[in-house]
Amino acid sequence: MSHMKPMIEMRDVSKWFGAIQVLDGCSLSIAKGDVVVVCGPSGSGKSTLIKAINALEPIQKGDISIDGVHVNASGTDLPRLRSRVGMVFQHFELFPHLSVTDNLTLAQMKVLGRSRDEASARGLKMLDRVGLMPHKDKYPGTLSGGQQQRVAIARALSMDPIVMLFDEPTSALDPEMVGEVLDVMTTLAKDGMTMICVTHEMGFASRVGSRIVFMDVGGRILEDCTRDEFFGNPTARQARTKDFLSKIIKH
Residue ranges of the ABC transporter domain (predicted)? Predict the structure, then answer.
């Protein structure tokens, strides 16, 4: 029955920044191969939620587990756990003084203990997967924003993650670069990667997301439903969700 175990489970997760509650009793169960899109207005706790999954943001209440490992348990080896969770941020977080290849290999050698040759082979395979092999010897500053974000995705994939987390990966990009990053993410989803993506890209959500989670200010999950339910049956949604959908679909 081990295959029935959720890949990611959150139970009644709450978090405060001082007196301000930013997550309020959030519960999610995400199966292997799910592509979950988290959307909602600014300030609704979306980024905090995704960062809490691999303990980049500590929580004050509740429980989070990844593949059966309890993220917030005192004995959990967080660096080891994080090595299995690919994280792609809004800003690319590449090392500017290292070549693309070195950016891809450093964490593999330090965290996974791979040899330089092994790490390089894996990294370049993932660089090819995102369509950037010709740029392997360049430095991040010479690449476009979209290319840098694709390198960041390749770096995360080089660690052989069991799940990928995306925190608004296209929001810092010029509009013409958004598509190239979403195309890579779409391919990952089709290949069966378990993904959680915080994004405002509703076209991507409606095409690729298997589930849509809608959050509102105060860090509450108002909706957790299939893509078809979310976009195709708006009358069944809560009033706040209907309001959000009416604004984004109009524009």
Answer: 8-243
